[in-house]
Specification:
about 55 residues; single chain; mainly alpha; 2 helices
Length: about 55
């Protein structure tokens, strides 16, 4: 996996955290859920890439 992919996943995770925080601050449950979903997506992408990397070596 390239460093660019890791950076994209980290950006998605940070964006998700920002959405979650904004949702909590404004009592917007939909935004908070979106943020948690974005974070979960980033985690899954990282896990999948870790598996790919494990088989490359």
């Amino acid at each position: 996996m390239g460093a660019g992919d890791r950076m994209k996943n980290a950006a998605e995770d940070l964006g998700g955290k920002a959405k979650e925080t904004a949702g909590k601050a404004t009592d917007d449950e939909r935004l908070e859920r979106e943020g948690k979903t974005d974070q979960a997506k980033a985690d899954l992408k990282n896990a999948a890439e870790d598996v790919k990397d494990a088989f490359k070596h």
